[in-house]
C-alpha cells in the first residue's frame, strides 16, 4: 500500500482511539468516590416470624460447599443430609471441584432454576456470588450460609461454627503453649479471599497484641489455596525462608494436614510446632507420632445439620433471620439468631493424643 | 501448525504425490473441503436443534425464560472469544492465551478502579485497548520473530496469568457500582434475552461479513491452505496475522470487562481454563485445526450446542464430571469424524472409479 | 510458519548421503552449549539464593529440591519423546492424576499389595492411556494438540467420576509405600534416583538407537521420513505409549510422595511440563532437543519456584517468570535454527 494510504490508515485508527477515550472521559464518569456503592440486594428479614409454625414437609434443600472433593465439606454436607432426612425433605449436594468464586455462580443459578426452597452455601468469595444469590432470593429461595459467609445483604442466616473471636483465641493460645510463649510464628491459610479465613486471621493479629503474647511474632501469612500439594510446598517454603520459625498455625483442614505431612517427614519434626483446625481422621497419625501436639475443630457434621435446620425454619416461616428469632434444630437443641443473622454452633473442641481416638470423622 | 503438520496428507484420494505438488493438492483439497464445509455446518446446526428439542422435552425447567437467560449469559464470554479464534484457526495459527488475557484485563480493571481514580467508562475503554496491546505482543512474536503460535501462546498463557496474579495478588476487587453490575446481567425489557447478547450478535455479524464476504476473508482461507501461495497471490500474510492477534486481544479485553462486571469481582483467577472450551467450541463448529476451512455459522452453532448441552446436563443433575468427559469426547469426535467421513468417502470414490471401466 | 529446523539442505539435487561430520560437530556443539548454559543458569540461581539464605543449600533443603523436581523431570523426559516427533501431549497431568488415584484406591482395596506390583500396575495404566492417545493420533491421523486436549478433559473427567469427591488420606496408605516418597540412598532421595535412571535410559535411547534417531527425522521433515521408509505411524504410536507409561510412573511416585490424593492431583501440570521441555532446548516444532536438556529444564523450573520463596520474592511472580522463560527459550531456539540454516546454506553455497 502506498505511503499516503498507510498514513491515512494510521491516522484514522489513532483518531478513533482518541475519540473513544475522549468520549469516555467526557461522559461524566463513575469514579470510585462518587459511586456510592450499594449492592442492590433486597432486605432479608421481612415479614413476621411464627415460631410455632411446623416445619414444612418436602422442602428442597441444596448444599453448595466451597468445593466438593474436600473431606471437611463431605462430612458437613452429610450432617445436613441427616437433618433433611429427619424433616422429610429432599437433599441435594452440588459444587465445583476447585474452590473458585465464579464457578459457584453457575451452580446457584441452576439451583434456583430447579426451584430449590433453601440454598445452603459456604462462599469462596464474599462478593462474587451475591448477584446470583439475590436473584435466587427473588425467585423465592431462602439462603443460608455456613462456614464462610457472604455479605450479610445476600443471605438471611449465617451459621457460624464458632465465633470468630473464639477461633482466634483458641488457635493463638494453642500455639503459644506449644512453643513456650515466645518465638516466630507463621500462618498457613487457605485461599486469600475466603471470608472466614480473613476474619480469623485479622482477629488472631488482634489477639497477638495482648500482653501475654508479646513475645510471639507473626512473620507472614502463606496461602495454600486449600490445595494439598500447594499447602505442602508452601510449608516447605516457609521453613526455608524463616530459619527461626518456631510454630505454624493452619486454620484449614487441608492446610494443617499437608503441613503435618511435610513436617513429619522432615528434620523439623517436633522442633517446629504445628497447630490448626483439622479433622481427627486426617491428623491422628501425626498426633501419635509427635508431629502435632494438639489441634482444634468443631464437628462439621453438626454444622451442616444446624444449617439445614436453620434453612428449614426459614422456609417454614418459623424465623425470618431477625435478631432474637428462636428455632429448634433437632437433636442439637434450641438456637437464637444473633446480630446480622448469625447463629453460632458452639465452642471448639481441642484434640490431642488423649482424646483423638474417640472421634471418627 | 498449518500444513507442515505431520498429517498434512489429505485423506481424500491420497495417492502418493511427488513433493512440490502442493498447489494442486491445495486446490483439490479446497474444492473437496468446501463441499465438506457445508455439510458440517448443517450437521452442527441439526445437532443443536435436536439437542435443544430433547432438552426442552426431557429436562425440567430447561425451556423457561429464566433458564434461557442464564444459558445465554453464561455463553457470552465463550461466544465473544470464539469469534476471533475462528479467524485465527482458519489461518492455521492458534491462540491459547485468550483466557489469561481475559484474566489480566480483569485484574487491570480492578486495579485501576481501586487506585487510579479514573472513571469506570474510561477504565473500560482502556482495558479493551490494553487487551489489544497484549494481543499485539502475541502478534509480534508470531509474525515478527516467526515463532510457532502454539508455543508462543502457551508462553503468553503462563506469562499473562502470572502477571494477573502479580497485579492483584490473591485479593479481589469487588466494589464495582451496583448499577453497572446489574446492567451486565439485565435482560432486554420484555424478553429473557440478556442485553449482553446484543454486542455479541453485532460482533458476530461483523466477523461473519469479513470472513465470508470480503476479499480479506478469502485471503484468510488462502493463508490457511498455503502461506506461500497466498504471499505470491499478494496477500500480506504477516500483517494480517498480526492484526488478527490484535483483534483477539481487544475482544479479550471486552470479555474481561464483561466478566468482571457480571461476577462483580476482579480476581487473578478469572476465566482460568476458558481457552480449552473456546478451542473445543471452534473445532466443534467445523473449523479445521489445519487451517483453511470452516465457517462462522458452524462456530456459532457449536458454541450454542456446547452451552445447551452443559446447561441441560447441569439442570438434569448430571455430575459435573460427566460434563467434562462429554466435552472431551465432543472435541475428539469433532476432529476424528471429518477424517473418518472423508476417508470413507474417498474409499467409496475409489471403488466407484475402479468399477467403471475407463476407455483407453 | 514453515520453518524446518535442523533438516539437512538439499544441494544441487543430491540427497544428503550421510551425516556431514562437520555439521554434526556443529550441531552437537550447539546442543552442548544449550545444556551448558542451563547448568550455568542453575548454578547462578543457586549461588544467588544461597548468598541470601544459606539454608538453601542445607541437607533438608536440597533433599526437598531433589524430591520436588523428580516428578517433573520424569514427565519432561517423556514429553521430549513426543515433542521431538513434532507432536505434543497435553494430557499428562490428567494421566498422572488418574494413576495416582488408582494407586491409592488399589492400596485401599488391597492393603497388602507389595509396592513393586503397584508400580507396575500404575505404569500399565499410564501406558493404556497412552495407547488411547497414540491410537487416535497415529491411526486416525488427527493432530496431537487437539486429541490430547480432548483426552485431557476425558481422563480428568474419568478421574473425578471415579473419585466422586472422596479423598484418599496418607493414613490409609501402607507405610512401606509412603516411605518410598521420603527415603534416601546415600543421602540422595530414591525418587530422584528413579528420575535419573529414566533420564539416562531415554537419553541413551534417543542418541544411540536407530529408532531413537528416526524420531528426530520424523520431527524434522515428516514427508521425507515417510518416504525414506521410516514407519512413522508405528513410531508415533510407540512414543505416545511410552509417554503415557512414564506419566503413569510419575503418578505412582506422586502418590508415594504426597500421600493424600484427590481427583484434582496433577491439574495444570501439563503447562509446566511443556515449559520444562521448551526451556530445556526441545524445539516445539520438532526435530531437535535431548532428554538431558529437558531434565535440566525441569530442575531449573523447580529451583526457581523454591528460590522465589527463599528470596522472599512474591510467589505470584513465579508463573509470570515461567511464561517469560518459555518465550525466551523458543526465541533463542528460533535464533539458533536460523543461524544454523544460514551457516549451512553459506557452506554449501561455497561448495564446501
UniProtKB/TrEMBL annotation, chain C:
Entry's Gene Ontology cellular component terms: plasma membrane
Entry protein name: Autoinducer 2 import system permease protein LsrC
Protein's membrane topology: Multi-pass membrane protein
Record's function text: Part of the ABC transporter complex LsrABCD involved in autoinducer 2 (AI-2) import. Probably responsible for the translocation of the substrate across the membrane.
Region (Disordered): 1-23
Source organism of this protein record: Micromonospora globbae
Subunit note: The complex is composed of two ATP-binding proteins (LsrA), two transmembrane proteins (LsrC and LsrD) and a solute-binding protein (LsrB).
Keyword Transport: yes
Keywords: Cell inner membrane, Cell membrane, Membrane, Transmembrane, Transmembrane helix, Transport
Keyword set includes Transmembrane: yes
GO molecular function, one term: transmembrane transporter activity
Annotated InterPro entries: ABC_transp_permease
Bilayer-spanning residue ranges: 36-53, 65-84, 90-110, 117-140, 185-206, 236-257, 263-285, 292-310, 316-337
Amino acid at each position: 500500500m502506498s505511503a499516503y494510504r498507510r498514513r491515512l490508515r494510521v491516522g484514522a485508527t489513532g483518531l478513533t482511539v482518541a475519540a473513544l477515550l475522549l468520549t469516555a472521559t467526557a461522559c461524566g464518569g463513575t469514579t470510585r468516590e462518587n459511586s456510592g456503592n450499594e449492592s442492590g440486594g433486597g432486605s432479608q428479614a421481612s415479614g413476621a416470624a411464627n415460631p410455632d409454625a411446623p416445619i414444612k414437609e418436602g422442602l428442597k434443600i441444596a448444599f453448595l460447599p466451597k468445593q466438593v472433593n474436600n473431606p471437611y465439606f463431605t462430612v458437613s454436607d452429610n450432617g445436613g443430609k441427616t437433618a433433611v432426612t429427619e424433616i422429610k425433605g429432599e437433599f441435594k449436594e452440588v459444587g465445583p471441584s476447585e474452590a473458585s468464586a465464579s464457578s459457584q455462580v453457575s451452580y446457584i443459578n441452576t439451583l434456583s432454576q430447579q426451584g430449590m426452597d433453601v440454598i445452603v452455601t459456604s462462599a469462596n468469595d464474599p462478593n462474587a456470588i451475591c448477584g446470583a444469590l439475590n436473584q435466587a432470593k427473588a425467585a423465592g429461595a431462602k439462603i443460608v450460609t455456613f462456614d464462610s459467609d457472604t455479605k450479610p445483604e445476600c443471605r438471611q442466616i449465617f451459621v457460624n461454627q464458632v465465633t470468630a473471636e473464639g477461633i482466634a483465641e483458641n488457635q493463638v493460645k494453642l500455639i503459644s503453649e506449644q512453643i513456650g510463649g515466645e518465638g516466630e510464628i507463621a500462618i498457613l491459610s487457605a485461599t486469600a479471599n475466603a471470608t472466614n479465613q480473613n476474619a480469623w486471621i485479622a482477629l488472631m493479629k488482634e489477639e497477638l497484641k495482648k500482653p501475654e503474647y508479646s513475645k510471639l511474632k507473626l512473620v507472614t501469612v502463606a496461602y495454600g489455596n486449600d490445595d494439598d500439594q500447594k499447602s505442602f510446598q508452601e510449608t516447605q517454603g516457609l521453613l526455608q525462608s524463616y530459619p527461626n520459625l518456631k510454630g505454624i498455625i493452619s486454620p484449614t483442614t487441608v492446610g494443617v494436614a499437608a503441613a503435618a505431612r511435610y513436617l513429619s517427614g522432615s528434620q523439623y519434626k517436633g522442633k517446629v510446632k504445628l497447630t490448626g483446625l483439622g479433622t481427627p481422621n486426617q491428623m491422628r497419625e501425626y498426633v501419635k507420632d509427635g508431629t502435632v501436639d494438639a489441634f482444634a475443630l468443631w464437628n462439621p457434621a453438626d454444622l451442616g445439620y444446624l444449617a439445614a435446620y436453620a434453612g428449614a425454619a426459614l422456609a417454614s416461616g418459623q424465623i425470618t433471620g431477625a435478631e432474637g428469632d428462636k428455632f429448634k434444630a433437632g437433636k442439637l437443641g434450641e438456637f437464637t439468631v444473633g446480630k446480622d443473622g448469625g447463629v453460632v454452633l458452639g465452642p471448639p473442641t481441642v484434640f490431642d493424643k488423649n482424646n483423638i481416638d474417640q472421634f471418627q470423622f | 501448525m498449518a500444513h507442515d503438520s505431520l498429517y498434512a496428507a489429505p485423506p481424500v484420494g491420497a495417492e502418493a504425490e511427488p513433493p512440490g505438488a502442493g498447489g494442486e493438492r491445495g486446490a483439490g483439497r479446497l474444492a473437496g473441503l468446501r463441499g465438506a464445509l457445508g455439510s458440517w455446518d448443517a450437521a452442527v446446526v441439526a445437532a443443536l436443534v435436536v439437542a435443544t428439542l430433547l432438552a426442552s422435552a426431557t429436562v425440567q425447567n430447561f425451556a423457561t425464560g429464566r433458564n434461557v437467560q442464564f444459558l445465554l449469559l453464561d455463553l457470552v464470554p465463550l461466544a465473544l472469544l470464539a469469534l476471533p479464534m475462528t479467524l485465527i484457526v482458519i489461518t492455521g495459527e492458534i491462540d491459547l492465551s485468550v483466557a489469561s488475557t481475559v484474566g489480566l484485563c480483569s485484574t487491570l480493571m480492578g486495579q485501576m478502579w481501586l487506585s487510579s481514580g479514573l472513571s469506570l467508562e474510561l477504565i473500560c475503554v482502556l482495558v479493551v485497548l490494553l487487551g489489544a496491546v497484549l494481543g499485539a505482543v502475541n502478534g509480534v512474536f508470531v509474525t515478527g520473530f516467526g515463532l510457532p503460535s502454539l508455543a508462543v501462546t502457551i508462553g503468553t498463557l503462563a506469562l499473562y496469568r502470572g502477571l494477573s496474579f502479580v497485579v492483584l495478588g490473591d485479593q479481589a476487587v469487588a466494589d464495582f457500582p451496583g448499577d453497572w453490575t446489574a446492567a451486565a446481567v439485565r435482560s432486554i425489557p420484555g424478553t429473557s434475552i440478556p442485553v449482553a447478547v446484543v454486542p455479541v450478535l453485532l460482533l458476530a455479524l461483523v466477523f461473519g461479513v469479513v470472513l465470508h464476504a470480503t476479499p480479506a476473508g478469502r485471503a484468510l482461507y488462502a493463508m490457511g491452505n498455503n502461506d506461500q501461495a497466498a504471499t505470491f497471490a499478494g496477500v500480506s500474510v504477516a500483517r494480517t496475522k498480526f492484526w488478527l492477534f490484535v483483534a483477539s486481544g481487544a475482544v479479550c479485553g471486552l470479555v474481561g470487562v464483561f466478566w468482571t462486571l457480571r461476577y462483580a469481582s476482579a480476581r487473578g483467577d478469572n476465566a482460568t481454563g476458558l481457552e480449552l472450551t473456546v478451542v473445543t467450541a471452534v473445532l466443534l463448529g467445523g473449523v479445521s485445526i489445519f487451517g483453511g476451512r470452516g465457517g462462522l455459522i458452524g462456530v456459532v452453532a457449536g458454541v450454542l450446542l456446547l452451552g445447551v448441552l452443559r446447561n441441560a446436563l447441569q439442570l438434569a443433575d448430571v455430575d459435573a464430571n460427566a460434563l467434562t468427559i462429554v466435552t472431551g469426547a465432543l472435541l475428539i469426535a469433532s476432529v476424528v469424524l471429518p477424517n473418518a467421513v472423508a476417508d470413507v468417502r474417498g474409499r467409496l470414490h475409489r471403488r466407484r472409479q475402479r468399477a467403471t471401466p475407463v476407455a483407453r | 510458519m514453515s520453518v524446518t529446523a535442523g533438516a539437512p539442505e538439499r544441494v544441487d539435487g543430491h540427497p544428503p548421503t550421510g551425516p556431514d561430520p562437520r555439521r554434526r560437530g556443529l550441531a552437537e556443539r550447539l546442543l552442548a552449549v544449550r545444556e551448558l548454559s542451563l547448568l550455568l543458569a542453575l548454578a547462578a540461581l543457586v549461588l544467588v539464593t544461597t548468598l541470601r539464605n544459606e539454608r538453601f543449600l542445607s541437607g533438608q533443603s536440597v533433599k526437598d529440591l531433589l524430591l520436588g523436581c523428580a516428578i517433573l523431570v520424569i514427565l519432561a523426559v517423556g514429553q521430549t519423546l513426543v515433542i521431538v516427533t513434532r507432536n505434543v501431549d497435553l494430557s499428562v497431568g490428567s494421566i498422572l492424576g488418574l494413576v495416582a488415584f488408582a494407586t491409592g484406591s488399589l492400596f485401599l482395596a488391597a492393603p497388602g499389595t507389595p509396592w513393586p506390583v503397584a508400580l507396575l500396575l500404575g505404569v500399565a495404566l499410564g501406558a493404556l492411556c497412552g495407547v488411547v492417545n497414540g491410537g487416535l493420533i497415529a491411526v486416525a491421523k488427527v493432530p496431537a494438540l487437539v486429541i490430547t486436549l480432548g483426552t485431557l478433559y476425558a481422563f480428568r473427567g474419568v478421574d473425578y467420576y471415579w473419585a466422586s469427591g472422596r479423598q484418599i488420606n496418607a493414613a490409609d496408605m501402607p507405610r512401606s509405600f509412603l516411605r518410598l516418597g521420603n527415603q534416601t540412598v546415600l543421602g540422595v532421595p530414591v525418587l530422584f534416583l528413579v528420575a535419573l535412571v529414566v533420564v539416562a535410559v531415554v537419553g541413551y535411547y534417543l542418541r544411540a538407537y536407530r529408532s531413537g534417531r528416526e524420531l528426530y527425522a520424523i520431527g524434522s521433515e515428516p514427508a521425507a521420513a515417510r518416504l525414506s521408509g521410516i514407519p512413522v505411524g508405528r513410531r508415533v504410536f510407540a512414543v505416545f505409549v511410552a509417554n503415557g507409561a512414564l506419566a503413569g510412573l510419575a503418578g505412582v511416585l506422586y502418590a508415594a510422595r504426597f500421600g493424600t490424593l484427590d481427583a484434582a492431583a496433577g491439574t495444570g501440570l501439563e503447562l509446566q511440563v511443556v515449559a520444562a521441555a521448551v526451556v530445556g532446548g526441545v524445539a516445539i516444532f520438532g526435530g531437535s532437543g535431548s532428554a538431558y536438556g529437558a531434565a535440566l529444564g525441569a530442575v531449573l523450573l523447580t529451583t526457581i519456584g523454591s528460590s522465589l520463596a527463599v528470596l522472599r520474592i512474591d510467589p505470584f511472580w513465579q508463573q509470570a517468570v515461567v511464561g517469560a522463560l518459555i518465550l525466551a527459550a523458543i526465541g533463542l531456539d528460533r535464533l539458533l535454527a536460523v543461524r544454523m540454516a544460514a551457516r549451512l546454506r553459506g557452506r554449501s553455497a561455497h561448495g564446501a
